[in-house]
Amino acid sequence: MLRRTSLLAKHYRKSIPGYSTQSRSFFGIGDVLGAIGNPKETLSQITEAKNELEKVKNELVEMGEKVRLPPVRTFVRQPNYFSRKLEEDRVRAMLDSDATFTVFFGAASTGKTCLIRHVLTDNTKYIVLPIDLRISAFTDPATFYMSLSTHLEAFFNDVSESVDGFEELGHRLGLGFKHARIDVERRGVPPSSTDISRLMELFQNAFLNYWNYDPSLTEEERKKLDNQSTLPEPKQRVTCGSPNKLNRKIPVLYIDEAHRLPQLLDTEHSGTLKIILDGLTVLTKQERLLHTIFCTSDSMFMSTLVDYNVLTHTQVLHVTDPSKDSIRSYLKDHLLLQINQSHLHPHIIENFDNIYSILGGKYIHWKDYLLGDWLHDGLSLTQSKVATHAKISVESHLYPSSGLSTPPNTLALLHEIAKATDDNPLDIFDARRRFGQEVVDALLCNKILEVRWGNVISRSNFLENAHMNPKLDGSIFCDGMGD
């Protein structure tokens, strides 16, 4: 083919009047003479061309490597998850109702993340935009804009792949976030709060398209609907237990460790945080476009919700430790199966109450002690990692290394909390009045105490109040050894 093309080119040149082989030869000789006459410049041009070719070659290789790199989905079910049916049913009841802005509180290691992730990874019902602020990709409005727009682009690309009939629409909506980000980058100026507001508007528009799109319509019917002054209400927007007509999945925005938001977007960028919270309130409470779930282990995050006037628009739920019976079942049906010395099983079961009084109701504490501290290292309960960490936390708070004196009411408050029970808890507002706000808040900030804001899932009949905002009683409990 190349030879034929070359012959045709020669024939065409010969057909041109005045064309001669001598003129082409002289031109080639001139180039050769020029290269010989200025060898330094010729070598420089050759080197530059070689470097450019090498650069292009490397870029092609890198692109090929990126294509071969398999995508990894990190939002998956936790392995060896031990079922918590009551809490799972409560979360599903919340997700099957109208779209809500829900804040899950709970002390560290109570299993909040595993529980919510286990429910949300039901791929037949939910499509999730997960953001874990433990590994946040932003520290200011500029990086937040880039990170969130990238997440949203990936989310709608996921829609195009996982929701039947939405291949084209999901791809188009994803491109909208991509090109908005490119436009901001080309401007050469860091994204501002105005850009984040526009991003939230684009977010809203994308979900309106998601709910109002009907792949069964023809192109002409879609154009007719687009020309109307208002968008029609979707035939079945949410989210009841049965799949809707078009088998749309229920969209969920899930932000883990949400209390880090004010830390990442500090007081200098408080306006940005206000835009984000207000935008999510509109998307959930007003427009009912998606569920928003904040998950946090920091009781003080309640102050952020109050300061930004978000609390009145949220549903507050509290996840506590599993019940004592659940821990007993976890021990018999899970942990003891991993201890090969079967002659030790009766001894562990007989001493269950004593072990529970130290380890409390956290699955992870039982696993760490029985399969680690006790089985491998031969440590007693008082030498266990759980007891040691609790003692260090309390002692470090009472006798800080900075040399500052402990507020005088701290010990009195701890003694008062030790007397509290589930039936007669200590109210946080009463404790602040009696012992001082500084004393109470210092213990909360150091995670020695937790406040059980609102309805505790594992100790309530969720079927009776599944759609009600629970009472915010603000009960204080010790978050250390045992209960």
UniProtKB/TrEMBL annotation:
Source domain of life: Eukaryota
Q: What is this protein called?
A: ATPase domain-containing protein
Q: What is the protein's species of origin?
A: Wallemia ichthyophaga (strain EXF-994 / CBS 113033)
Q: Where is this region: Disordered?
A: 222-242
Q: Which InterPro entries match?
A: Archaeal_ATPase_domain, P-loop_NTPase
